[in-house]
Every structure is written in C-alpha cells, then in structure tokens.
Amino acid sequence: MTCYTAKLAERQLQEEKRAAAIAANSSSNNPELEYPTEEDFKTLRRVAGNVRWTAYTIAFVELCERFSYYGTAAVFTNFIQQPLPPDSTTGAGFSGQPGALGHGQRAATALITFNTFWCYLTPIVGAWIADEFWGRLKTIQVSFIFAMLGHIILIISALPPVIQHPNFAIVCFSAGLVVFGIGVGGFKSNIAPLIAEQHQRAKPYIRTDPKTGERCIVDPVQTISRIFMYFYLMINIGGLAGSISMVYAEKYIGFWLSFTIPTVLFSLCPLVLFVCRHKYDVTPPTGSVVAKAFRLWAYALKPHWSWNPVRLIKNCRSPNFWENAKPSKIRVCHRPYWMTFDDQWVDEVRRAIKACGVFAWYPVYWLAFGQMTSNLTSQAATMELHGAPNDIINNLDPLFLIITIPLMDQFIYPLISKLGFNFTPIKRIYVGYIIASLSMITATVTQHYIYVLSPCHNHASTCDKPAPISVWLQTITYVLIAVSEIFTTITGYEYAYTKAPKNMKSIVQSLYLMSNTVAAALQQGLTALSQDPLLKWNYGFVAVLAFFGGTFFYFTHRDLDDEEDYLNSLEPSTYLGREEKKKGRKSKRDLEQGVQERPVERSSWSSF
Length: 608
Prior knowledge:
Belongs to the major facilitator superfamily. Proton-dependent oligopeptide transporter (POT/PTR) (TC 2.A.17) family. By secondary structure, this protein is mainly α. The chain is built from 26 helices and 5 strands.
C-alpha cells in the first residue's frame, strides 16, 4: 500500500510539473501567436515546422563526409581478408574476387570492429573540445585536417608497390585508421547538434490549416525529429553513393582508387562550412560543465546513499532526489561555491541523465546493426553473386532508407498521429529493437542453409564454390535492419539533442555515439564466433540479445513516456557556464529570443 501511495504521489507531482511547464511555455510577449493549453496538447495533432536553409548546407557536408567514410569502409573487408588476385597488382578482381592483404576473416572482423570502436570513442574528446574551447564549427574544421591526413595514409597503404608487402601494408592501414578516427570523432559529435540548432524556435504554437481549417500544434520537438530524419537521409545517400561506386572501383581498377575518390569529395566539406560560416546559428563555447553536472549528481545522491543496492535504486527514483539539490532549496550560507547555476539547469541535467540511461541499452542494438559491415559481407561471398561484388549487397540498407524515410515523414507518422496514437521515442526505440532481432533471425536461417547446401558444408567461407543460394536472399535481412534504424537510430539522435542542456549538447550527443564503442567491444568478444562453423550461432546469439535487451529496455524506461511532454516543456536555463562568468552577458541566441518566438515565413524551397 505504501509503495502504491508513493507511486501515486510521484505521478501526481509529474502531472503538476507538466502542467506548470506548459503554462510557462504558453506565456509570451508575442500576441500574434496562439500557444497551446494542456487540453490542446491532449487533443490536437502535432506537426513539424519549417527548417532554415542553412540546415541544407550542413546536410550536404554530412553527405560528403559519409560518402568518404562509407566509400572507404565498404572495401575494408575485401582489402584485409582476401588475398591479392593472380596477375593483379592493384587488388582488382575483374571477373573474380577483389583482395589485397589476405589476412583472413578474423583479422578483417577484428580491424573493422576496432575502427568502429575508435570512431565512436573519439567523439567524447571532440565534444569536450567544442564545449570547452573552440565551439562546434571550429572543432569540425580542425577535425577535417586529421580526417584528410587519415585518408592520405589509407591511399598509401593501397598503392600497388605497398600491397606487395602485406605486413607493412596492414601496419600503414592501421595507422591510417587511427588518424582518420580522430577526425571522424571531432566531426561526429558536433555535426548533429550543429544542424539541429539551426532551428531556433523553443516553444510550440497553434497553427490553423487554411485549406482544411484544422488546428494543430507546431511542435519544436517534431521539427527536430524531421531535421534528424532528413539528416539521416543525407547520411544514407552519401553512404549509398560511396559504397556502390567504390566497390566497383575496387573490382575493376583497384583499392587505391577506392580510397582516392572519397578523399577528393571529402575536400568539399571544409569549403562549404567556411563559405557559410557567418550564416549559421552557433552556440559559443561556454566551458565544459560536465564536471559540475557530476558534482550536482553527487550532491543530490549524498542524502540518498545506501549500501543496499535495492534501496539505493529506490532512493534515486524518489521525486525529491533532484528537488532538494536545487539552489533555491538551499540557504545561501550552506550553498556550495560551485553551485552557480539556476533551478532550471538542475531539471535539464536530470533530463540528460535520464537520456543517458536510455543510451545505456543501445550497445545491444548496435551489435545487431554492426553485422552489416563485417559478417554479413563475408556471408554474401559464400553465396551465388550473379556477377555482383559481395560487398555491394549491404547497400540495400541505405537504398531502402532513402525510399522509406520520406514516406515515414510525409505519410506514416502523420497517419499514426491522426489515429490518435502517441508514438513516443521510447516506443519507437523498442519497436526498432524487435525488428533488429527479426533481422538477425533471418541471417541465422540463411547461414544455416548455407552450411547445409554448400559443397564444403560447415566450411563455406573457404570453399572454392559458393552455396547454391542467391545472394539476394539477404534482402530480407537488410530491409529489416533499415526499418529498425528509422525507429531506433534516428530517434537516438533526436533524444540526445532534445534532452540535453544547451551547454552540454555535444557531450550528450557523443555519449549516444559512444554506445557504439561498447557494442564494438562486445563484438570483439564475439570474434571467435565470426568463423566457420560458428557463424549461425553468432547471428542467433545477437538475435536473442536484441530481443531481450529491447524488452528489458522498454519495461525499464516506459515511465519516461508519461514525462515526455513535461521534459520537452522545461523552462530553459539561463546558466551559460564559463561564458557567463567571463563576459557576464547572454549568448547571441538568448539576445535574439524575441525574434525566435515569431513564426518565420519561408518559401517552399527553404523547408523540408
């Protein structure tokens, strides 16, 4: 009975906070706008608003960068695993299998997994530098230098005289991956917040459709969701173009060309950002506030600490856990010297920590997602290719995403909204997990029949003849992975941005990306399964992990669905960190708040 009363009190407190936040957001000095009430939030459909043209230029930069990344990564498996074809000095396969170093599938899987681990570990450093010293735009520009140098080293490792010496080439290649990963890390943690902050409106308002007369809520969260959907669309357009073209460059010319063309296109990225640098809405560096956020968490935890883990978890979920750590609740004479922020920043940190709890479950999903670039590519090589390169089949994933993302944005999501179903981020992520599990089940079944039908049975990877199964059977697996990305990956970008304090957006985004490193470490542990005759157990194990991981995730975080509107309606903090201390003034965005609250009419070409 006591537990039930406590939960009821917590739910009532959440409802009161939500109503207060909505009421606060509804107050404005702009009489031209109609702001939604709590009843409007329950009854009116929510739609996305317009997006500034500057977001297009950043999306183009992302397209070029992903072309360079996926274009080079698409040929990594063959470059490392397969031996140099007879009478070939460049690794081109012509009518056979392209290859260069011949170090085998385990080495290929290990290096590709390391590359994933490294490229998603370095963003935490790039985020810290952006928040502390340079800001997002300058950090991205400096990262381009490292990425370009990494590209050049990769080209050297693939030159015909170099690949004649596989041991030296693999060392050169590995060095290129390390340098390249530093550049990728600085770019990845900052490009997503940069494109999202081009949308300046903070408060939802009501708009009436002139054709139908329908009243709907123009929701900034829906707009951010749209931005990231099309941001992810650009990722996949670049990835698809790079992967397909570089696979054929590898097959008919050689690996050196597969590494050179992406480098040339990558050189456009710094040029575009430099030309448009004065047009972007950019949050200046405010000093890293991560240490202060940890201090705040430790201060809030201190009175609730218990050596009993069950009691500790219960105490941390108490409604008063964060309330008692707010500056307004602490007498000035007892307030710590570092507590220079306001109550609103405490709410924002609480929200960010809840988001990080969501990201803690993502490694299970990335484990399934990562099979595309390693084991599934090798699986394709054991099937009937009908003239297609084995490492081009995984491009079915971005191809399906390019088709599906606009359909989801323009038709599926609006239909779900009209039906009255609140498809919250937690529900979307959960659906993505289940679909990812289904994709791994199909890969398990495919691998089973490869072993059954291959002339070499359980040693299909080293067999001279492929199994009599069409490689296009993998379409089912790739389509399911693509659908899961729409629900899980894109929602992760959205969740990281909308739930982070404005002076921690790069850090929180990097923590989301960093979940890939945990998945890469888990994949390293599964490397022993990435060989015959254990591959079907590899896919089956990942399928089970994705299913149970997604299920536990949902039941752990489903309470966040009830708080979604409240978390998105928090009154923004005025705490700026180092910028506030040194300059004693508001940022450009805060000074222009009055302008931001006005709806901006844009021509059709300036919005998605």
